[in-house]
Amino acid sequence: MKLLRSVSMALALVVAVTSSLLAQSGVTITGTVTSDQGVPLPGATVLLQGTNIGAQTNDAGRFTVVVPSARANGQSAVLTARVIGYSAASIPITLTAGSSISHDFQLAVNPFHLGEVVVTGAGTSTTRERLTTTINTVDSSALRRAVQPQNVVSALAAQAPNVEVRTQSGEPGASASIRIRGATSLTGANQPLFVVDGQPIDNSTVSTQGGNQGTVAMNRAADINPDDIESIEILKSSAASAIYGARASNGVVVITTKRGHAGPTRYTVTSTETWDKPRVPDLLQRTYGQGSNGVNAVCGGPDCAVTALSWGAKLAPGTPVFNHENELFDTGLTADNNIQISGGNERTTFFASGGLNSQDGYFKGPNNRYNRASARLKGSQVISSKLTIGGNFSYIDGRGKYVQKGSNVSGIMLGAMRTPPNFNNQETYTASGLQRPYRFPEPTSVGSMLTAAYYDNPFFVLDNPGNRSELGRSISNVNADWNPLSWLQVQYTLGADYYNDSRLQALPLTSANDKPGNVIRFLANNLEIDHNLLATARRGFGSNIDATFTVGQNLNSRRYRQLADEGDGLIAPFPLAIQNTVDKGASNLLTLVFPFSGTAEFKSLAHIESYFAQTELSFYDQLVVNAGIRNDGFSTFGASTRRHNFPKASAAWTFTKALGDFGSGVLNYGKLHFAYGETGKEPPIYAAVTTLTSGQTFGSGYSDAILSSINGQGGLVTSQVEGNPALRPERNRENEYGVDLGLLGNRVDLSATYYTRRADDVILGVPVNSSGTGAQFAVKNAASITNKGTELTLNLRPVTTAAFAWDVGILFGQNRGNVKSLAGAEFIPYNTEGFNGGIGSSTVGFAPGVIRGSDFVLCGRGLHLNDAAQTDVDAVCGPEANAQHALYLAANGQPIVDNTDRVIADPNPKYTMSYKTGLTLWNKLRLTGLLDVRKGGQVWNQTMSVLNNFGTSKLTEIRSEQGQFGKNYLTDVYPHVAGPGAGVVAFHNPQEWQAWFTGNGGGFGPVGAQAVEDASFAKLREISLSYTVDQSWVRSLTGFSTVDLRIGGRNLKTWTKYKGYDPEVNLGGAEYLTQGIDYFINPPTRSFVLSMSFNR
Amino acid sequence: MPREYLKMMNHRQWTAAVAIAGILGATACHLDSLTGGELSTDPNNPVTATNTQLFVGTQSALWALWGSDASRTAGLLTQQLSGLARQYAALANNYAINTNVTNGFQRALYVSGGLVDIKKLEAGSLAARDTIFLGIARVLEGAFMGTGADLFGNLVYKEAVTGNPTPELDDQLFVYDSVQTVLSAAVENLSVEPNSNNIGPGAGDLVYGGDPAKWLALAHTLKARFYLNTAETRPEAYAQALAEAKLGIQSESGTYFGAFTQATGENNFWYQFDIILRGGDMGPGIFLDNLLKSRNDPRRDEYFAHDASDQPVDLSADRLRPDFQQPYVSYDENTLIWAEAAYRTGDQVTALAKLNEERANHGLPAEAVAGQALLNEILTEKYIADFQLGEQVWRDYTRTCTPNLVPSSAAAGSPTGGDIPGRLNYDQSELNTNPNYPDDSKVFWNPDDPPNATSDGTGAACLGR
Known about the structure:
The complex is a heterodimer. By secondary structure, chain A is mainly beta. Helices cover about 10% and strands about 45% of the residues of chain A. In chain A, the strands form twelve sheets. Chain A has a 22-stranded antiparallel barrel. A five-stranded mixed beta sheet of chain A has the order 11-16-17-14-15. In chain A, strands 1, 4, 7 and 8 form a four-stranded mixed beta sheet that branches. Residues about 1-25 and about 590-595 of chain A have low confidence and may be disordered. In chain B, β4 and β5 form a beta hairpin. By secondary structure, chain B is mainly alpha-helical. Chain B contains 18 helices and six strands. Helix content of chain B is about 50%, strand content about 5%. The radius of gyration of chain B is 28 Å and the shape is globular. In chain B, the strands form three sheets. In chain B, strands 1-3 form a two-stranded antiparallel ribbon. At the A-B interface, β26, β27, β28, β30 and β34 of A face α1, α2, α3, α6 and α11 of B.
């Protein structure tokens, strides 16, 4: 707060100085902009047409436009007021030097933002009225109130139908993934292209050590300060994104940052504080102690090794027990402070901002943070009446400290949740400073810990300072807008996106995952230069036909450099640096199978040279036809197939203009649109050639391996993946049908879209005959995927008076993905996505990214038992049980393992919905709420299954009871039972329960399917109350004209049957195609938000 | 005036058009490059290699073929080792082999360091007119493909690595014959005097230091080995094996081994498997340990470590060193091939002399046996000497049924019907991608294989068959 006060005082000083500079003897135009109901409209743009002269209204809807005397020659001009959600209005005025004009605008509600300019990509734009495809727009106020507003991808959750957003966890620095209308590709994470102010930027997510373990890694679009964003357009349909050709098969997210407007300089200082708590559903039992078969395990003295299990006796009353979840957490605090200054005159505009987002995560201790500092300067200068040049410079500094997570014996939740309730993890260290893991609680020396198998004490994990990242990034461009002729506009943008990402991921001495200690350094830098040149001709033919013709050129260069280095075995305990390790540049054998081992370098360079043309014709202001083509040349395309065309065509007919409202008085506006478009995805880099490798020549199924170089002699062998010089881009074709309706005096608007898309030539590694080809896989254009879906948007404005306004919005999205063919294979596994028991895959007949594993023997699957009689299961079950897919129980009441590998979980939801509503009183007090619903989709809750094995989960309290399938155990997964053991008690005592859970019934057993849960949920994403203070004392006290105050809550309530932490989180993060794997993930947050914004 | 205006417009249009075209053209020329440099060539991985680099990579792949998965399987099935836990218990006790369990074993013959790179090395040697290197490459080819014929029976060889996506299989005997042909060519190449072209791998050869004489001896011993492996159906092969063994490895210094080191990624496979990765999965074979004990063989402690009660607990500490120089084709093997081939061709005197030469080398007293007993002694001696030598121990067992192993009783329900498996299934990935393979998913024994031994060296019925 002290910071804020000094900032506001400094700004007040600046204001005083600049105000005096603005006093000139031109024309002063003042007025208010209100809705036709008299509600003041803040943020409206009032602009002298054909010039840069204008202003934005303040929160009371007032504006002041000053026309300098040099530009006031007594000529006529048109003054236009426009704001999102309302029809624009114009008046003619005469500019006489020294005069004052007063005019108030009353704008009619415009449900579809029809007059609004919509950015349609690659520098093109049109008005929403003329739009022939589905493009969703998200404005800045929605971003600000979003659940995780610090990450622009997270902030898009529930903002548009069929835009599915998943945030990996509530940790600072966690990635978020976004999937638009399902997956169209089988490699990579199917993330859309991100374009900021006309310039494509990198949004990769690269984990240091694979997504399942190590630490979280940020998706790089999160580097953008969301407070700088004016609006986001999501180009969902292929027709809309076809202008980006072979980069657009997963859609395009077009971000436009704020800019300055001519008029008084505006100042905004915003400070938002968010208090984060994890959502902890209390998953652990606190009744039974460490031990096995009902007998407590006791440490036998120094260097004792104690059982990993909590299958001991019931703890004696009064035994201290610990909540191994809650004890890890405190309240996280995110402070987001932003300063923005913008303004300008008729020749020069500017926007400058500085932001500091500082997240202290919910884990205790200092090693759970992410800080992003950013600065932006954006300006434009009119050089002549025909030429305007601009620049947009931003710099981001991101720094993180992380906690090891996931499938990792040094991961925080893994060690914590496996700890017996009667072991005190908070006694973290021995007198001599060694960590006390619960399986080896009294270590005497570092040496004694080297041989013991254990998990890390979670507080030791929290104390590890060795996981850090430092990022510096500049996303900048220069641009020019040249209008050589009244009908011709030439736009040029030259942008560069450069970042340098430097990471350390280290495990200190005695860490379970690498007991002698381990240091990984990871350095990456990325440079993307983009050149976009566009010429647009606009011409009217008579009064009824308008034509726009655009040609453009895009040149792009992407250069990536990565260096990973690893040292093993710390010499001194600190520093955690490679030169302080015994085995530099090498890695321990266990990590040899990971993407890099020891020192490894990766470099890539890719170029694009593309041309595009499109035309838009408007007939009688009601029929709009749009057609275009992009010709792409990518260096990543196979040499024999260097250029490819991506056409599009679309049309929209505003039928109410031709046919009226059919006499109903209900239908105010109606538009039908149809679009066809093709987009693509480029092949993976360097897939054209078969290379040699200096890595391992051989790795057996059991991980023993040998390198091709031996004892200093360099060796090379041929890669097992056969290159393909004829690779084409993947091609995605989509038909989209839509209707937009405005009803009941525009109190209701409804949009509906249906689409079918088919991706062909999808690239995958096809298994080939090794004896014939000398390779294991060949990269080929071989698979097909379809997606079909429906999207609905309904907005209701039942009350819109000056004193009281109420609006309701409903979004509905549904997408069905289907892998049609995989070059003859039934499925392809993603071995790094998931692990034993549940592996991500793409399987024919399912959406991409389903989880495969084994199940128990179920009725109705045509199975035969592996007994002497080869028992026909279905014959024993009978028709009813077969229809129910009942669980087949052997005579002992227990199920039988079915080794068949099959799809056990589909994480893709059946549909998603969100409901938002807002109440506004006197245009000052506003209450908003957002409810997010996801129906269907499954999560593989392997966390719970493994905790059952260890006897720490709450579910294992069932050990005091007798257990019977179909009656009191696993009834939600297997409600029906059949077979000779139906009705038989399967488990009689804790020993039998232990045998079951540590065998076929637990997470280390072979049956993944028993841990699959429905991931449906409803979440109260956001509820907030804001108030605008604009009384005169505000100004006299603070120097600002208005103050916005907001309090809110995020994720306050979740309704779900899911038994783990949260059905939304995912082990692997945004880099993986497969979502829906829960394995000792770090929980998401619920937050309380307090925000203040000072405006002038 | 309108005319004037139009003219002006045209002029302006023209200017604008030229300007746009100029910008487009200039920038296009500047960046019009979708090929060349890092755009077309992977900057991370080479696409060409020297002969020596290919040789080093190929040789480490050969050690993997003889030292890793497949040789562990052979050790389990011949009861030289036991499977104690996880997959290895199932493999040893239930003969749980199918197209998926051993998937990848067959592929290793052809990919990454296998035939694909040997062919490159041969072509490179030809281009450099390096006859010695060519001979060495052909020895490697014979070693790979001969071992492949041992393990799988019929195999793709003629059309191997030709780019044919669905190559035809060749008969096992055809494969063995082709191996003899390529090894004969190697012998010819290696017999050429070294000159400025003929330099071979030199220091890149970590086993023989590039010594052509040692490679020549190895070629002869391999020829002898693979002749012997066809002798079930071709009795004349014994004489051929005898002739080759006489030219084969004549001293310990000629033994071919894996030159493992202490560096990560260069370790002996048994160290990796038993110490680092899968401790407790495999252990000493009780049958072999008892055999050694009953024969007072000093190799008992050389092979296995024993606890206080004299029970074998693991491989010996020496054999579990990360840089244990594992022998794969040995002087021992050559001596015993000589002995067996001499016996089979009627020369019992030489056979006994060679047997006793081998025994003396291991500190064992000379024997005086004759007839079936002599053959049995030779084969038993070879079973012992073959320990961890690779897959040949398994091939000798299927060929001679000596020693006459008792199959695992738990394997009665296995696809082999309780028999000790005689070969590996083809890789599932090979079956899936080539319709020319026979259905190998259920039929364990390849009907085209040569018959396996039905009796042992003493004439008793073969228990494992």
